[in-house]
Each structure stands twice: as structure tokens, then as C-alpha cells.
Amino acid sequence: MAQVKSDIEIARAAQKKPIQEIGAKIGIPSEHLLPYGHDKAKISAAFIAEARQKKDGRLILVTAINPTPAGEGKTTTTVGLGDGLNRIGKKAIICIREASLGPCFGVKGGAAGGGYAQVVPMEDMNLHFTGDFHAITAAHNLLSALIDNHIYWGNEQNIDTRRVAWRRVMDMNDRALREIICSLGGVTNGYPREAGFDITVASEVMAILCLSKDLKDLEERLGNIIIAYRRDKTPVFARDIKADGAMTVLLKDAMQPNLVQTLENNPAFVHGGPFANIAHGCNSVVATTTALKLADYVVTEAGFGADLGAEKFFDIKCRKAGLKPAAAIIVATVRAMKMNGGVKKDDLGTENVEAVKKGCANLGRHIENVKQFGVPAVVAINHFHSDTEAEIQAMKDYVASMGEDAILCKHWAKGSEGIEELAHKVVALAESGASQFAPLYADEMPLFEKMDTIVKRIYRGSEAIADKSVRDQLHAWEAQGYGKLPVCMAKTQYSFSTDPNLRGAPTGHTVPIREVRLSAGAGFVVAICGEIMTMPGLPRSPSSERIFLNELGQIEGLF
Fold first, then answer.
1. Is the pLDDT at 558 greater than 90, yes or no?
2. What torsion do the CA atoms of 532, 533, 534, 537 make, to the nearest 10 degrees?
3. Among all residues, which ones are annotated catalytic?
């Protein structure tokens, strides 16, 4: 058997076209592209404003089953499908998120796809790219500095230092910084208090950037951030300490979507990157809405499984931006079905049709959940060379028993050629007009009831449970006028429950809501469930141990 090339080797051999050519394909003149080198560019705000007059194309969501260490290939399938749609004569643009440095050096790897379905330049995208995450980190931490500075110079807003709600961020997994005490060292350093760090992708600034329509909307949302509370429990906003203007200045360029290309030289917008387990998990509204004006089809992904990313895509992003998805793809693999059926990772290479059948319950749950939103769905079986005919057939039969189609996709090995069948199916679904999209709950539903609705209808738990202090906090926010906001569930991505080891399709579990956070600028309420952390840690053997520069000065080990 021929040696399989690594993702980075394939990416390095890509025949890239100048970014101006990629822009011209979708009608972006070169004067509206702000180049970062030869293969990356930002799209000007003026062009985005002009494009708003055009008609929308069709929006396709790529989601997946709960992730397993066996790998599902959601971004790979998003990229492959975009290439596949272009191959069959449709004008398609891919919209994906930027990669966080935390998982690149931690355990998960990057976010540019894989095999022959990748977005390039892969190394740049998985590292500093165009500096968007650095700008978000800087804007977030500027606000942190301004809060402590305001308190130091007399505290005109009467901030209760015990009730500062704004933590600091960095784009790295670092468990040592989860809880800290700042301002130690005497009078000149300010008033000591408890604080902590989250990862940048959990920052409300990230969510705001991804949900804002333009710079004016961005500045207003930044001003609406609740940074702390006074002793009388009234909120203090970022605008109260005059932080919104300077934060907007830092984010001016980061607000513009990035244009890159696939290995097959098709356009890809890569912009924003909130995690789906601790934030809303979707790329930016401005990238998605702009792409819809320039293409027949826009293929986008939402993080982790459909219980997290897709639910937030539908209930937060689509609700807020007025988007109407035409179809959804649920990515699954034979290997992941076997893991959900109880097979250990080391034994995945051995045929086990019974385990596949048993594990399909997880896939079935996700199919049912997507259909609850009124969006037609098709299953993409992302092919691995170890899959057997019998295992693939078992998956297809299960999906057929639910009244849906499962299509085998070989885009990882063959690029667009390996995903043509799925592309045709997606076009048929989208053009049938079958989508009757509606969010899961009404704006008017009380906040805790929204959380309980997600627990019961999406996670199939018996109920959401929370201490009186959490419920009282939600009631207080409702009294302040925040009751109509959607909720963003922060929960483990590995299970429908809050127990990451409970695979398959559990029912009847309770979902404890440990803490709630109001993201008044982004426009949602975060419910932190179970043991989920907003600052991840590194594993015993992080990916960083295998990342280095070779003798030619090329990067090795990124994936």
C-alpha cells in the first residue's frame, strides 16, 4: 500500500492561485481585497456594504454526531462539499471558523480540514493567520485593564470589587490561570481581588465580533458588555468606563472576513472562532451573510455535535441574523459508531457490525434533533480505509429506517470527486424547498425554561436543575429586560449528558446548571453545565511536543 501523505505534506504541495484570482471568481475586485501575503486577504467593509443589495444564495449547515477520539471530519466534509458543489457546476463558498492556538498545541489539532479536502495556507490558518484572535485578545484585555484602572483611580462607578464579572483571556490552554488573585504587591498595584482567565475563544468579545453586522453594531454591543455590579446590584457597562471606542479601534480590521482557498482553488471565508462547547460555535455573521450574496450555495459548519453547534447555530445565530438554512448534513463515521457501540480505540480496525448497529443510536438522536428545527437532513459517512462493506451497509440501513439517506463520501482521499453524490443530494434537498426552519423556543419563554427545553428536547434529559442562587440570578436578569435573550449551553461535547463518558443516546439524566453568565453585548445567557471549563488544560502529552521546524525551516507536526 502506498504511503499516505500527511495533511501538512498535502497542503504544502498545493497549487495555490493568487488570492486576487480567487476573489475575482466570486466578484470581489482586487481593490476590495486587503492582501496578507499572496494567499490570504481581508474583504473590505465597503464591498460588504455594497453586496447587501444582492439576492441570497442557499445556506447549508454541516454538523455531526458527538465527537469521539476516532474523529468525525466535520470541517473536512464542509470543505469537501464546497469543492463538490463547485465541481457539479454550482457557485459555492465555504464559511468556516479560525483555529485557536489552544487545541493546536493541545490535543484536537487545527481547523483547516484534512486529506484532499483542506483549506490553505494550512500552517498560517492554524497559527497566527491574519491576527484576528490576537486583536480579540487585546481588546478583551484592554477592557480588563481599564476596569482595574477605574477602580484604582477612585472608582467613580462604585464598582463592587467582589462582583467584577469580566475575566481576562489568552489563546492558550493553561489550567494554572483559571483562578488567580490579581493586584498583589502593595498600594501602587491596586486593590487585590479574585480573578481568572478564560481561553480567547470563550470571550464575549469573540461572540460579539461573530454576531455583529458592522462596526457600528460592534461598538454598540461592546458598550453593552456588563463588566461588574455595584453594591446595590445594578450593572456597570463597558460604555460606563468609556472602553467601547478603543476596543472597536483594536477590532476594526479583525471585523473584516478573511478570504483563502481550498486545495481545488475554490473560495473559503474563514472568520471568527468561538468554541461550541463553551460558546456559540459558529463563524461570523458578516462572513456568512456576505458569502450568501456572492454564491448559489454557502456551506458552513457549527462546532462539535448537533446537540451543541447545530442547536446554537439555529437558536442563536440564525435567530439573531435572520438566516434560513436550506439543508443540514450530519457527518458520521463507521469508527465513531463502533466507539459509541462500546469498542475501544485500539480495536477500531477490526470489523464489528453489531457495534456499528448499537452505536447508531447516537446518530439517530442527532437526525431527530436536526429535524425538530424543520431542516431536511442527509447523513454523510466520512470514509476511512478500514471501513468494511458490511459496516457501511449497517449504517445506511439504520439511517434508511429513519426515513433519511446516508451517502458514503471519499473526499478525504479523492477531493471533490469523492463527494459528488452528496453534492447532488444537497442540491436536490435545498431546491425542493422542504426547509421549514424555526428555532426550538420562543423569545418570550423564561430563561430557565429555555434551558430546560434544550435539556428535554435535545439532550433527552429529565430536567435541568439549578440552585436557588442561579434561578434568582436568572429572575433578576429577566427583571432587567434580558428575558428574551436566547441561551447558550456550555456543556461537554462528548455526550448528550454532562458525563463525558456516557456515550450513545442516554435518556432520563438530569443536567445541573452550575453557573450562569450574562453576555449582554453578544445577546445571550450562558448556562455552564456540569464540570465544563472555560479555560481548558493541556493533556499529559500535548501536540506541542511533536511540533517543530525541520532542516528546511518548514513546520512539522501541525494537523
1. no
2. -140
3. 74, 76, 97, 108, 276, 304, 384, 412
